[in-house]
């Protein structure tokens, strides 16, 4: 039977990611793209680790978790200071919080960046917990780094910060909160926390869920940030794979409906209305997130369409880009970005990982072939 992760594109994706991973475990966001070269993001990296873990490359995912743990351990004193100051009612300014991306060696970047983003710290916890569950692995070697992260997040989760797209730092973003809640729940359930921390993690997650329902929805669907009326393509992740909100619930259905109506043209998904980055094109990785959410809600046909759309964005060399220009929100803005940063990031490892992740889910949930009956007709 046809298996998505046996395709040439899936094989290329896995080989590309594992081939570009550094010996220390970092995943380059995009090896050649001017603004990303030399950096590994917690957000991209965690989803990449989850993708390759689901596709069977457990050792690669674990090497990434080792890299995360190294980054956190080397900042343990600084993290403890952030937590103590925050608990004392003096939250440090955004510039003193942990950055979104690091050099492969785990050092802070030298270039200016939109650094204060909390989502990746939740996402690495979530990806680790998923990996341990999926492979029946033991998480002891990451315990201290998990504890540092849990303390950082339980102290800081309610703060406004930059979102997945490194924008709008004055808002509290629903996708960011979903990553944090999923991470805290994940490691609490994985038995990686002592009693006090497990209590704090579960309490913070419950508070996040309640607050999102109160301030992060409108007309029954999840919105981009507290008080917004708009959606964001990243919200599909809150349904699946993060599983923060039930994809089959009324909230899940309405969120999927809003994402389809507002952001998806054929199978291609925009980040948000008003996006101008490279003209505001369609992101294959977002179509894969949307596919995962549809699949979890029981709509396999739509998930397959979204997979096929994302796969069709591959270049002749089978590389997947960050975005494609077939349908642009702000066509006039594209040229300026091409001149500033060069061609769109290609390959983007996160795109490849999301294709693998959706492929793995389609493969493991494939309907069984019809059993022939005695008369020779399928039942
Ligand atoms: C995106 C981020 C991403 C980064 C590296 C940025 O343009 O907005 O979500 O983490 O690229 O891929």
TrEMBL record:
<dbReference type="InterPro" id="IPR012341">
    <property type="entry name" value="6hp_glycosidase-like_sf"/>
</dbReference>
<dbReference type="InterPro" id="IPR008928">
    <property type="entry name" value="6-hairpin_glycosidase_sf"/>
</dbReference>
<protein>
    <recommendedName>
        <fullName>GH15-like domain-containing protein</fullName>
    </recommendedName>
</protein>
<feature type="domain" description="GH15-like">
    <location>
        <begin position="15"/>
        <end position="255"/>
    </location>
</feature>
<dbReference type="InterPro" id="IPR011613">
    <property type="entry name" value="GH15-like"/>
</dbReference>
<dbReference type="Pfam" id="PF00723">
    <property type="entry name" value="Glyco_hydro_15"/>
</dbReference>
